[in-house]
Amino acid sequence: MLFRKKPVRTSPVRQYYGESVSARLAANPATKPAKSDAIQLFYYPDFLNAAECARLRAMIDANRRPSTVLSTADPDYRTSDSCDMDRWSPDVRPTDEAIAGLLGLDPLHGETMQGQRYAPGQQFRAHCDWFSEDQPYWPAMQQCGGQRTWTAMIYLNDVEEGGATWFPLAGLRVNPKQGLLLAWNNMNPDGSPNDKTLHEGVAVMKGTKYIVTKWFREGNWIQG
């Protein structure tokens, strides 16, 4: 029996965002590219200071709820707590807009920034941030900006043991460091989803891990 490989959708729009953002980050003296041929990922140490991180951690503690996922019922897949960060809050807006400015992306394309808290034993198993366009949830995603292009994630504290962000197919493993921002392109150079962006929030062994994550869409997340 012959099996035909499903064609991969390329996209000039997503290709443009990959090229423009990576060029902008490469030209920024505060950022450093990861040593990987598999994905485009950049590091920005001390993107937030200690006071900014503390304010965001307090907001996460005050508003957290069990994290959710789009397409699995496995209760152990994502065991952290999350909260949506009010983008217009005076404690959130400067960070929210600074991330968009760093990447050179329209703030209207940015999803609501999400705060996440991992207690000992909590994890987020291997996943990609881009959406599978053959899944039942895809039509709903098309109504609020379409495919995700870039992800920005900031560690809000150091972690005593565990809690690394691991990209197994790209050969990258990043330990939490307060204020460190990671930014990566979820697409390949041709604008198709990059399977090698598969990543995992490794279980925390000791301490508590706090992060904020902001995803950007190819179109407007904020409608109207």
Give a description of the structure:
- With 224 residues, the chain is an alpha+beta fold.
- The protein has one domain: q2cbj1_9rhob like domain (Jelly Rolls).
- Helix content is 20%, strand content 25%.
- The strands form three sheets. It has an eight-stranded antiparallel sheet, with helices on one face. Strands 6-12-9-10 form a four-stranded antiparallel sheet, with no helix packed on it.
- A hairpin with a 4-residue loop joins β9 and β10 (172-174).
- It is globular, with a radius of gyration of 17 Å.
Keywords:
P4HA-like; Jelly Rolls; four-stranded antiparallel beta sheet; eight-stranded antiparallel beta sheet; Oxoglu/Fe-dep_dioxygenase_dom; 25% strand; 224 residues; globular; metal-binding; alpha+beta; vitamin c; 20% helix
Question: Gist?
Answer:
With 224 residues, the protein is an alpha+beta fold. 20% of the residues lie in helices and 25% in strands. It has a single domain, classed as q2cbj1_9rhob like domain (Jelly Rolls), CATH 2.60.120.620.
CATH class: Mainly Beta
Q: Main sheet: which strands, in order across?
A: 1-2-11-7-14-5-4-3
Structural class: alpha+beta
* DSSP helix fraction: 10-25%
Largest sheet: 8 strands, antiparallel
Strand content: 25-35%
Mean pLDDT: 94
Rg from Cα: 17 Å
Following the backbone from N to C, one meets helices and strands in this order, namely HEEHEEHEEHEEEEEEEE
Judging by the overall fold, what is the CATH architecture? Answer: Sandwich
